[in-house]
């Protein structure tokens, strides 16, 4: 077990608690950078997909895990990010300008949505965001002059300083681009958590009354969380557009919204790791399932069988199992296993036992 | 007359939304949780009835199949609580929301695996014949929906206001620990309410399937019913029905008088509008917390 | 001029009068206690000062500034910090993070700077942490520094809440039943802390408390409330021997 002797305030502030964890993350990032030389194009594409989902997950995690505002409508913000980035590029803006601007635009939309939404709690917020997600689909169709409605749009080629980046022809460059965005978003997220605003988010999540008494402006803090969350989600949306190549009003459906929320719950609410773990599950589940059905189909001689609804059904079942047996998600399980090894042989079985809790009405706020 | 016809068909649709919304409100009143799988329970209820009564399946007479299906769905509701939801006892609303969404996914998959993904119609005596009153055509199914919904709402309302069990259910939702101390078996009460809402879902499913075809994705109707429950304000049974009727009536009028594309938007736009001005619904019960 | 002045404050919930034409003032540097039977409106007075409730009529001023002009979250900016009767901590955060939220009124950096974690943010963080570590030392919270609130015993939570209020460097500290639920030893500690808060830190304390031992031990003046109105005010011994106060506590007819 590693013991941290704290000798200065920096010990609590810096990104990595000790040299060991710095080393671990350095190796991880180095491994991620050289990945295109290790994997073939198909798997590199899959890893790219994981990273894009992880960025979207980070966005939602900031809102749901950190600030306690569950959103079932984040696909709408993915769509805003995607459409605004590509429409800006079609109007002649270079990617390096259009991409961050897409994040800003989505953030502004998120803040605008938050202005009425910050008054909503729990289920009411969930419902308002569901409505937003359903509306997004129809609104994209209604805005056909800009969005080309049901026929959809194609993502243009990305050019950065003359370097051409495209999902199919240069998957390695596209991967590095996504990796860079992922690292930047993760760093910004981490920085927020060790600064006053990040703590204000947690304060709003856990007790609005005492946050107010400590001088935290609840509405402003929630709106900031919405804005930031949507900005990050918008970036992920733009990348999703480039990854898919073509998209229309049905690409960012309510199922995507729901999957995104389920993903961060499976990964572990309230942790950066959770967004990544969840993204791995959501991106590789379809592959794993199709491999499984192929194998079973091969064994019983039925060939390749497609079972509609299988993915969401299995995903739902996994989620139910997690909520029942590991509410802290994959990250929570990982922490337990790590602690068990660190304390070996002193870990006790009831160390992580949940306290019995009783629910009081939430009709009183 | 045209307006009247729109109004009547809107009311009948609204009653189906209202019935699903009743299921939401039941569970919300008693457990303070929101069952996002209510629409899928309704879908399952319809398919169970269809499986019992349709000629290509078990071919039971409708009037035997329907009560049987309602009983089965009550059992399924109770079991869902016993096996899954009870483990979440005392956890936050958001956890239950996510859990029930996942349950909906699983139910949809199960129904698709058993009954296939093609739309099917329920062979029900309710789907035959229609009345003509003063130039307005009223289907048998529409009439049945309206009558059953009104009766069920009155029955459930009385149940919560008058009976000891109903009051115990409300008490259990307000403060679980205090309810325990007063001798209310909170967990069993929670199981009963899930059974009850399973039965209500079955009724809604039977009536919905009598009005038209049903497929595993019919549960997505729950989202609209959800809008209805919110507009009415969670926690109020008559409110749920009122919300259902509002949504049901808006739809046909919107598709008649608004440009194409805007009509689907109408119920959700109304929902957002209500939430902006009455964040807890039209018949809100939320007060400020005491510190 | 007094530090806190409440003039003719009245608050009604529906038909119930929770605070009835109440006036009192707290001088800079004193410990002022409010006592009274349950439902006398003691916590309501705190919630009026915190701006959680809007008074029906009357004025509340802090250091000459009208508190009623301010939003609830702007009260802390003036240097008013408080604790709650039924502890309201941030359960899923560590003790250190809870105390750091107490520093929120001293936040000088904006969202963009914090996302980039500029040198200025770092310098500010150092200041916040220095202030918080002083509070941790003062209240002996070192063993719990990095523990989650959710796993802490009641007595410790009570102290953490006091610490969170102190971290904001307040001028006026509102303590809502600081000793309720504490053991005899813990109450003794609380008494010493309140003494030190006043004497060493020079913070004015306004507290609601049932434990008369603690009240008479630390407070300079006591206000007795019943049914939202003033029964008696004065030195602890005077108030305790006031016939009206004894009647309110024991019921009329006794004495």
Strand arrangement across the biggest beta sheet of chain A: 1-4
Number of strands of chain A: 4
The global form of chain A is globular
Whole-number total of structural domains of chain A? 1
User: Cα-atom Rg of chain A, whole angstroms?
Assistant: 22 Å
Briefly, what CATH class of the largest domain in chain C? Alpha Beta
Q: Which segments of chain C are poorly predicted (pLDDT under 50) over 5 or more consecutive residues?
A: none
* Contiguous runs where pLDDT drops below 50 for at least 5 residues of chain A: 361-365
Identify the biggest protein-protein contact and residues per side.
Answer: A-B, 55 and 60 residues
Indicate the topology.
The complex is a heterotrimer of chains A (365), B (291) and C (255).
Chain A: H1 10-13, H2 19-33, H3 35-38, H4 41-66, H5 74-90, H6 95-117, H7 122-142, H8 144-147, E1 153-154, E2 158-160, E3 163-165, H9 171-193, H10 196-206, H11 208-213, H12 218-244, E4 246-247, H13 254-267, H14 272-299, H15 310-325, H16 329-343
Antiparallel strand pairs in A: 1-4, 2-3
Helix pairs in contact in A: 4-9, 4-12, 4-13, 4-14, 5-6, 5-7, 5-12, 6-12, 10-12, 13-14, 13-15, 13-16
Chain B: H1 2-31, H2 38-53, H3 62-83, H4 93-115, E1 130-133, E2 136-139, H5 140-162, H6 164-174, H7 176-181, H8 186-211, H9 221-232, H10 237-257, H11 265-277
Antiparallel strand pairs in B: 1-2
Chain C: E1 4-13, E2 16-26, E3 31-35, H1 42-49, E4 57-62, E5 65-66, E6 80-82, H2 95-101, H3 111-116, H4 119-138, H5 154-167, E7 172-176, H6 184-199, E8 204-208, H7 212-218, E9 221-226, E10 229-234, H8 236-241, H9 243-250
Parallel strand pairs in C: 3-8, 3-9, 6-7, 7-8
Antiparallel strand pairs in C: 1-2, 1-4, 4-5, 9-10
Helix pairs in contact in C: 2-5, 4-5
């Amino acid at each position: 077990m590693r013991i941290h002797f704290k000798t200065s305030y920096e010990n609590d502030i810096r990104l990595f608690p000790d040299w060991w964890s710095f080393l671990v993350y350095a190796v991880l990032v180095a491994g991620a950078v050289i990945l295109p030389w290790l994997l073939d194009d198909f798997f590199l594409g899959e890893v790219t997909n994981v990273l894009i989902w992880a960025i979207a997950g980070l966005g939602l995690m900031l809102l749901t895990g950190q600030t306690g505002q569950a959103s079932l409508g984040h696909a709408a913000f993915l769509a805003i990010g995607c459409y605004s980035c590509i429409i800006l590029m079609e109007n002649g803006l270079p990617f390096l300008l259009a991409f961050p601007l897409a994040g800003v635009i989505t953030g502004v939309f998120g803040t605008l949505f938050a202005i009425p939404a910050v008054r909503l709690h729990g289920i009411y917020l969930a419902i308002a965001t569901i409505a937003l997600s359903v509306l997004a689909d129809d609104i994209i169709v209604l805005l056909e002059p800009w969005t080309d409605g049901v026929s959809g749009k194609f993502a243009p080629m990305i050019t950065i300083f003359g370097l051409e980046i495209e999902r199919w022809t240069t998957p390695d460059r596209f991967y590095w681009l996504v990796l860079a965005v992922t690292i930047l978003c993760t760093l910004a997220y981490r920085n927020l958590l060790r600064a006053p605003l990040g703590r204000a988010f947690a304060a709003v999540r856990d007790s609005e009354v005492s946050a107010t008494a400590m001088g935290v402006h609840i509405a402003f803090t929630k709106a900031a969380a919405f804005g930031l969350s949507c900005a990050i989600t918008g970036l992920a949306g733009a990348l999703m557009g480039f990854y898919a190549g073509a998209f229309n009003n049905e690409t960012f459906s309510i199922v995507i919204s729901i999957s995104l929320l389920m993903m961060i719950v499976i990964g572990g609410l309230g942790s950066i790791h959770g967004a990544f773990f969840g993204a791995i599950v959501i991106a590789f589940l379809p592959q794993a399932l199709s491999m499984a059905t192929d194998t079973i189909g091969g064994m019983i001689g039925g060939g390749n069988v497609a079972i509609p609804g299988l993915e969401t059904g299995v995903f739902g079942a996994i989620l139910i199992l997690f909520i029942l047996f590991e509410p802290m998600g994959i990250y929570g399980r990982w922490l337990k296993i790590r602690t068990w090894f660190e304390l070996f042989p002193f870990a006790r079985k009831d160390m992580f036992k949940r306290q019995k809790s009783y629910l009081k009405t939430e009709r009183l706020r | 007359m045209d307006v009247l016809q729109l109004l009547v068909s809107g009311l009948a649709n609204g009653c189906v939304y209202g019935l699903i919304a009743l299921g939401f409100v039941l569970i919300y009143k008693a457990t303070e949780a929101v069952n996002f799988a209510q629409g899928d329970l309704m879908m399952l209820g319809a398919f169970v009835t269809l499986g019992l009564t349709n000629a290509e399946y078990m071919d039971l007479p409708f009037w035997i199949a329907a009560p049987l299906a309602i009983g089965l769905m009550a059992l399924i509701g109770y079991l869902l609580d016993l096996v899954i939801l009870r483990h979440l006892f005392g956890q936050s609303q958001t956890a239950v929301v996510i859990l029930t969404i996942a349950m909906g996914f699983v139910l949809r998959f199960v129904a698709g695996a058993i009954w296939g993904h093609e739309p099917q119609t329920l062979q029900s005596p309710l789907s035959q014949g229609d009345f003509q009153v003063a130039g307005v055509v009223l289907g048998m199914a529409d009439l049945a929906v309206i009558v059953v919904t009104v009766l069920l709402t009155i029955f459930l309302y009385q149940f919560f206001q008058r009976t000891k069990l109903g009051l115990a259910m409300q008490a259990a939702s307000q403060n679980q620990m205090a309810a325990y101390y007063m001798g209310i078996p909170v967990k069993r009460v929670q199981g009963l309410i899930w059974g009850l809402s399973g039965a209500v879902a079955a009724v809604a499913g039977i009536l919905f399937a009598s009005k038209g075809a049903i497929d595993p994705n019919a549960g997505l109707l729950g989202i609209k019913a959800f809008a209805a429950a919110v507009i009415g304000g969670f926690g109020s049974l008559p409110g749920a029905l009122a919300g259902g009727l509002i949504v049901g009536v808006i739809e046909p009028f919107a598709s008649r008088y608004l440009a194409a594309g805007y009509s689907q938007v109408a119920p959700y736009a109304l929902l957002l509008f209500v939430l902006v001005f009455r964040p807890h619904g039209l018949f809100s019960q939320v007060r400020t917390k005491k510190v | 001029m007094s530090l806190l002045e409440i003039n003719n404050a009245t608050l009604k919930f529906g038909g119930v009068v929770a605070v009835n034409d109440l006036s009192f003032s707290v001088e800079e540097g004193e410990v002022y206690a409010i006592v009274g039977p349950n439902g006398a409106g003691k916590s309501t007075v705190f919630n009026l000062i915190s701006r959680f409730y809007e008074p029906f009529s009357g004025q509340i001023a802090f250091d000459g500034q009208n508190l009623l002009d301010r939003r609830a979250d702007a009260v802390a900016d003036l240097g008013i910090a408080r604790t709650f009767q039924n502890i309201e901590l941030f359960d899923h955060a560590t003790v250190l993070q809870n105390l750091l939220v107490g520093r929120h009124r001293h936040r000088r950096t904006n969202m963009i700077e914090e996302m980039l974690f500029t040198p200025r943010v770092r310098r500010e963080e150092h200041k916040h942490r220095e202030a918080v570590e002083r509070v941790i030392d003062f209240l002996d919270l070192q063993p719990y520094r990095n523990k989650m609130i959710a796993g802490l015993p009641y007595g410790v939570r009570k102290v953490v809440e006091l610490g969170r209020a102190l971290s904001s460097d307040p001028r006026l500290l509102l303590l809502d039943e600081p000793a309720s639920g504490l053991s005899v030893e813990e109450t003794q500690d609380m008494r010493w802390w309140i003494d030190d808060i006043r004497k060493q830190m020079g913070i004015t304390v306004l507290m609601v408390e049932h434990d008369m031992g603690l009240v008479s031990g630390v407070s300079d003046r006591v206000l007795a409330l019943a049914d939202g109105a003033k029964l008696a005010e004065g030195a602890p011994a005077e108030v305790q021997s006031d016939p009206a106060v004894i009647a309110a506590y024991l019921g009329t007819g006794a004495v």
